[in-house]
Records
---
Amino acid sequence: SSISVQVTMAFTLSALRQPAHLARSLSTTATALAPKKTCLHDLHKAHKGKLVEFAGYDMPVQYADLSIKDSTIHTRNGVSIFDVSHMLQTHIKGADRVAFMESLCTADIEGMAANTGSLSVFTNDRGGIEDDLIVSKTDKDFLYLVTNAGCIDKDLPYLQSNAAAWRAKGKDVNIETLDGRGLVAVQGPGMAAVLQEGTDIDLSQLYFMNTVVGTVFGIENCRVTRCGYTGEDGVEISVDPKQAAALVERLLASKKSSVKLAGLGARDALRLEAGLCLYGNDIDDKTTPAEAGLAFTIAKRRRQTLGFPGAEKIVEQLTKKSWNKQRVGLIAEPGRAPRGHAPIVHPLNKASVGYVTSGCPSPCLGKNIAIAYVDKIDSKAGTKLLVDFGQKETGVTVTKMPFVPTKYYVKKN
């Protein structure tokens, strides 16, 4: 693996006209060498994408035809295509693959139906979150994982070293990375109409967090997973890197909806509006699932069987409701948008009660929004607080998330 160094992301709205924190794949780790290129790099350049170095890759932050604001709004009304090929795709193989993964993350993989998946978290012995991931239980002889590009330098060695330890004890588990494979996110209300005309997969039966392999626009062996990072209905398509550009061009040519390329700027605004966490900003190795509002990632069976790092502390927090800070949404008064690390104070005594982790102007709401951690006593929706910008303070109101209602394609009982 490449030599990595800790760096601070310096993107700001004033400098690059983009949000400060850009996508699920962002963390504070990036490569010290020249940025890598995804299999869609030439396509981005051909479509006049504005490329920036991001999680060790050259990635498009936006395209010439749409501003970040307009691209965000377009996603909620049409279809946007995002290159997420920099994410780490992995197959976990072997007879002991389920038990192995359950020893590292919080998902009830044993209880999953075939070809379904779940958002989960890798935890540490302190109960903190080492990374978030999507783990899917396929009907083949492997689990399919998608983890953050910015955390590859710690996630992959972690998986490999633990697998080696299991094999040393006579267990059957192997890690296979899908190096270079394309991953394309197709997001928005028109997704199903656009994709259905080009695939043999029945999308009406592919529900949120379901995954299946099929042919897409003549390209065989595409894994289509109904998920995304925008709050909209969408899929992520894992595709042969040599066919990825052709797939995107076919999607762009569709007449079933307005389809456009979108970059990391819109992706960040969309995920913030959907109230979704960004690793390295809204969650980290010191944040527990309870504090982060991610208790749902601790499956019911796993709360009983335990067996993942920090399980006792995490379950004790959930059982006794014994945590002190809480992730919340904030809607700010008109003016300056709250940004990461900005202090939050109480309006009466100006005592510190928390801090902002992500924030931006919401293109779809026309308001400034933020994700923050505040003292649990101040986390009730409707609570009035202040963001301290140093020379000036701005009023904020604690609100439930998502800010924009999600539209996932969920099976109705």
Note: The first strand starts at residue 4 and ends at 6.
---
Amino acid sequence: MVEAVLIDLFSIPANLQNNIQGLLHNALEAVEKCSCIHAPCVYVMCCQRQGSETKGEQEFLLPVLRGFQGLKGRLDMVCAQTTAAALYTIKQRLDEKDLSIIKVILPTLRKDLMKVYIDHLFTAVYQFAFEDLQVVSDCKNLQISEPQHEGQTLPSPDVALIRREIQMYLESLPSLNGELTILRSSLIPDDIFLHGFTTRTGGISYIPTLSSCNLFSSSKRRDPQVVVKENLRRLANAAGFNPEAFHRVKVDHANAVCIMGKTEPDNYDGIVTNQKGVTLAAPGADCIPVLFADPVRKACGAAHSGWKGTLLGVSMATVNAMVSEYGCNMKDILVVLGPSVGPCCYKLPHESAKEFNKIDPKCVRLFDSASPYIDIRRATRILLERGGILPENIQDDSVTDQNQNITFCTACHPDKFYSHFRDGTNFGTQIGFISIKD
């Protein structure tokens, strides 16, 4: 059932200009007819001429809107100078109400154009269907029978222009919830490596659980790739790396490792390189983003270590890749564990806890309970030390000087970090990143 209706009057073709009020009236009338059964929110999108807040299509349409008292409180006009700005504003209002099923009523000539904007600004969480503005007249036309996923038909130059318009608009948005903050380890020498762990502030993501510097997009979340890309651009500017030479692990919660310059696996939780200027990254939203640096052989790596990856030894797999590929000496490799869920908050079923108890009983608290507390950081350290990494070359929350601690509990600090454990399925993601300076 339709949850929202978007009426696109942003750029009406010349042959419809004289009847724009009539077209809007017919569309709203059809929506109002359905209101006795279902009351969708209605958004009317129109163009605001540059340098004016009231002139343009808006002044001609307001009288029509006033005539539909039955839609009062659910009818919203959004005027902006670009389609990207108008549609992104509407997306925010949809997200505020947690709406996902949208009927778009628009001129036929705008359909392919609108699909490109939607493909870039929305994810698969949303379901769209389209209706011709000239033929909408009853409730039947306002239903959604099945999702429409037709292929792109716009010429590539037109698509490129739309992408650029979206990019420019997102770049113009202010940062939310404070300045962009990067945590750095004193263990990794900053004359050789550029590195850090992100926090959740300083980006443009606005959904509460994703706000504001979310750095991961998926088909199950509401933050589109273009927003994540803009957050990454801002991070790159602040940190000093090239976002075009940025490589993030393809999470599989296992122990495969990608060697930069060799055939890339389909999925991997570790990645290593000895190439200068290439930034490696691992995500974390409770799982541990782990960074590796060898200042002698000038090689580095990153790994994503959740409870499954920890048990499978992803950190030592990443270390072993550095040793075998770049001739690193185990005693030279530095390892830093980033923000991740701590043993104060993280629970697993008893069967899974048994595996951590085998590593060391100190990795489990309240072992006899149905859901013991698990210390995946301690388990990671133990496995690294057993593999040959020197204890003093590992930085985690066991540091003596807590002013040097960067391995905060993500679940305990909602103002600083994202947490899947705390926030549920529509959660944001921070990263750990590292590169060898040119």
Note: The domain at 4-138+153-172 is CATH 3.40.50 (Rossmann fold).
---
Amino acid sequence: RHLRPVLLADHLAQLLRAQGVSARLVPATAGEGSREVLRQLRVDWPSGSAPGPDAVLALKQALSRCPYAAACEQGPGMASLPEDVICKVHLKSFVEQQGLVGYDPNLDVLLVTEEKLRSLAELQQAVLQCTVSDPAALPGARSPDASRCSVVHVVSCEEEFQQQQMDLLWRILDPGAHTALQKHLVCGPVKVTNPSFPIGADQYFQLRKRQMYEASVMKYGELAQDEAWTEVIDILTVAAIRFEMLSTAHRSQITLDLEDSSISTKGTKSGAFVMYNCARLATLFDTYLRAVEQGTYPPLPPASKLNFSCLREEGEWLLLFNYLLPFPEVLQQAAQLPPPSKGLRITANTEAVCKFLIQLSMDFSSYYNRVHVLGEPFPHLFDQMFARLQLLGAVRDMFHSALATLHLPPLSQI
């Protein structure tokens, strides 16, 4: 459940950066999972320095002046409080007086600890370090010269309540302009079919890696135990997990099937299938370039010199009109955050990139299985070959751009 919001936040940040919007990830204090798993999953997880004592001290001083804060009284017959509790803050009173909408009605009194203040100081630090590249494009920007940024809490549904507490504490202690733009992107639950034991991020990654290795052995035969194959298996595993976690709309529940049969190197709904087709394109162009070096084919002429009327296959125009032309809009729509309203939750269509890549892979695979791009080296066939290479070169670049939003490097071979 912790892995899903982390992968979603990483993907969302990459999509925003692709649009020229500055985006910065801030780790939660708990639940982000093993840093080693995040490294293996190629998550762009920050390793910035912790906030200094001065930042935490400033928040403590703000607490002492806060009308919603009160000292924690302990006495006979009262439940004992943890030693690290500094004070309590009446969140419900703040929500009612400010007229805030969308918060959990059960939010009442928050026991503030040193750890919560450190988390808050880290959020403040991140906002101060975040540059607004195109303020007019950000939700909530009032004018082109606005300098505020939006804060999006990406959180699992199980931890939404705790994150709303942090949101309100931030609003109370630091009533700056940026805190008004806090929104919550909530992930649905992650369930496992027939779980025989509780599974964490580490076990999940290792299980998928073993399954990917065994599926690859079944398809390609016994694999050499070298760095190249290890790297390929690692990337296929990351692709499988990212697509498994991100192909479903973030609001919906994900049900993981951990059986061996659920992982395949060519299952048309999987990240491995996408990587396989990306590698087919790389192999095609490697083969062509080697043939050019050997004098079998001439080099590819500039696009302006090509005769695109040679593209008569329906699959070729399908790749152009269904994928190449709408691709920029797909990227833009995937990370388009709605403008601020009175509501607290927002949605993003981040699953669109995964679905786009899977459908693209299916249609490209169908076309590539029917058509011989590199035909016989006869001059009268070169015009058609060049036009197809130019088209597929654009498809290859589109694969690479879309995979980059998932922190997946293109594979040159499988």
Note: Residues 271-293 form the longest helix (23 residues).
